[in-house]
Amino acid sequence: MITARAAASFDPVGRSVATARSFVRDTLQGWGFADIVDDAVVLTSELVTNAVVHAGTSADVLCLRSDDGVRIEVADRYPEREIPLQGNALNMGNPDREGGRGLQLCAALADRWGVEYTPTNKQVWFQLGLPERAVGTRTAGPALPSHLLPLADGRVRVAVIQIDRTGAINAWNEDAEELFGYSAEQVIGKPLTDLAAWPHTPGTSTGIVEALQLSRWEGSYGLRGAHGRVTPVYASHLRVRDTGGEPSTVCLLVRDHERAVLQTPLRVSATDTTTSSEGHASDPFEVFIGSPAPDDLDGLLQRTVERARDMLDGDSAFLLLATDDETELEVRASTGLPSARQRFARVPVEAGTGRYGSARMPAVHEDLTAVPGAVPLLSGTGMRSVVTVPLKVEGRLTGSLGVAAESPSRYSNEEALRLQFAADRIALAVESARLGELERLRRGSLSFLVEASDLLAGTLDRDQTLALMAQMTVPTLATWCAVYTIADQASDPYLSYVLHEDEERIDGLKALLSKIAPPDPVPTPGARVWAAPAEAAHQAALRTSMRSLGLNEPATVSSGVGTTLATAGAVGGETVVLPLVARNRVIGMLTLGKPTDEHFRQEILELAEDLSRRAALALDNARLYSERTAISQSLQRSLLPPELPHIDGVEVEVIYRAAGEGNEVGGDFYDLFPIRDGAYGFAIGDVCGTGPEAAAVTGLARHALRLLAREGYDGPAVLDRLNSAILDEGARSRFLTLLYGELWPQEDGSALLKVVCAGHPLPLRLRQDGTVEPAAEPQPLLGVMDDLELYEQTVILDPGDVLLCVTDGVTERREGTRMLGDDGLADVLTTCTGLTAGAVAARIMRAVERFASDAPSDDMAILAMRVPGLQKD
């Protein structure tokens, strides 16, 4: 019969194995099955490793409690990975090979085990029975000499506290009054959590609230007494029911150093071979850390500080690791201290006469109040005495381990030697785990930078580059990010982009940063701390709180209190600034921030520095591209007439489409301008190529046409002189196709045209009856030969006639092997009878665009002129 169950799923990543072990350990300890925890954890570890590492799938772990014991099931999503068949049931293979150890362990440790398959899952299960004990006996230890018995005070006081189902205290005995200074009347009815100074056992994820709901639990925490000091206690919780069936928890508490009175002894297997015949441990590392040792760095460091604190009967302990250059120590684990505030904080190794000036040697401080700041990590924590020892590997400083107490003169050289001995045992394991973590971080950093480089290289838009910079840093590297840009050396930094992992904090963060002076644009590489945001946030929160309490001017917006306090918490941690340097110039700053009392890891800062270099180059490339695009567009606009003149008696419409994204100056141009009273010149041309050289010829042609025509030259003379000017350009010259004409509206409603078509697509004339014919003959293009024999042709446009002039981007529009051509253009024009000049141009452009699905690859210009005729009254 199943009496309890617990289930969890774990992702296919390496850290899931450690998480699964913690899940099973916490579950079985909560059920009171401490005797079988070790075996269950070992088997679960192997089976989850098979699933998430070897099979590469997620793992589902199910713990079932019954009267017979505990059954644990581990399922993965890889049913094709079958159990290897063994010819001999006793031959389980080589235990040293990579796969199959989980099944060997199941056969060796479990009472029963098996494998079940479904179409989507493979499930391996094992069952562990509870050890048989004599009635009334839970555990027993051998008789020991008096000097080996644990120490206790003159009288061991056991506080008995009972907690009801709501978490409130409903019983408080005399020993509880003696230990904590509260009378029963003062605490009855109050939640136990109101007295808790340490909300959970250091190094575990089980809080007091959760512990009170478990059937059985043992651990340590701190209760704040009536005198205001914290009393570390060791507690044993037992969940019971009263005569009415109401559940409550009975808590037995002793002073933490008297934990042997209540603590359940660790189960030692009958086959344990860790001790020699002399009774000394063969592996001092396991004696200090315990077995099994955590396989992740954070777990190992947390276990280390907890054991160090217990070994020296301290109130707190901490462990710092050295950076690669050994110039700084970084806080990586602590117990009994505000770890959230201290984690990843850094202190220099050589800090003068203080503790860290001699970090390479053991040191004992009997009273920290006599040497303020000797151990910066303990400032403001109430710790008075401390012993610290170095962690060294092959003579190289790798870290520092310390234990502290609230009372002075607690430690001497003897404790320093004991702690140094333990530090020597664990230094190599810590360094090995640190190097493994560093290698994983570097592999992740390399992948991150490759992806970031690809994303940044994929855009040349400035705003999008700024957004990418921020989105790549938040929340991967920081909680919030701000990007300042500098337009030029004479400009001040400008707040260009702000991002926070909580979108509701962005506006408040932006408002806060807008009110403080930006960081100085220092080109020195590397991250530097910027304290201004945290200070400004603190002051703003203080002012808002005072207004809300009526201590200053009245608050105008009640919701502003929460917003300001939330903003202050969001930026109250460490803030660093990295310069954005591109082409030997500071173009901006990348600002990264943490929430209240958090610090950056050194590896994260190094990764952010690499990212800032790539981001700076991408941002500068986007700036250069924007400037080049703006110049090209401005130049393109200068090569076209700003507006077309109004011609009485003639409708004129022009459509111009430049190919590409505007980053190249096109070679097509058009113009329509008055020459003298009653006469107008028009032109449409195409210069070979694009870019500055083509633009130079385009500008030359347009301005030369206007100048020569207004000097009274006829069409052939204008083009002949333009041809000479183009040839004078030498290597920069480009050949030019040009249709040039002069237009005279007539009193009878018609229009007289004289045109010269120099190598350009022939103009087409649409008559009122729908016929289409060329309005000129082809002649040599310009920019190729010196002597040109050009002539002009006269065309009369009758009322209703249309003259259509286009560039070759229209006639050479392609779809595969098909091309629109002159005939296709003429076919489209035949459908334009009776349309205005604007409608004709629009229909031609629409037909050209629909001819092919791809975007046009060449510039296109369309000039349509129509003679509507005389208007009748």
TrEMBL record:
One of its GO terms (molecular function) is phosphatase activity. GO terms for biological process: regulation of DNA-templated transcription. Residues 160-190 form the PAS domain. Keywords: Hydrolase. SUPFAM superfamilies: GAF domain-like, PP2C-like, PYP-like sensor domain (PAS domain). It comes from the Bacteria. PANTHER family: STAGE II SPORULATION PROTEIN E, STAGE II SPORULATION PROTEIN E-RELATED. This is PAS domain-containing protein. It comes from Streptomyces aurantiacus. The lineage of its organism: Bacteria, Bacillati, Actinomycetota, Actinomycetes, Kitasatosporales.
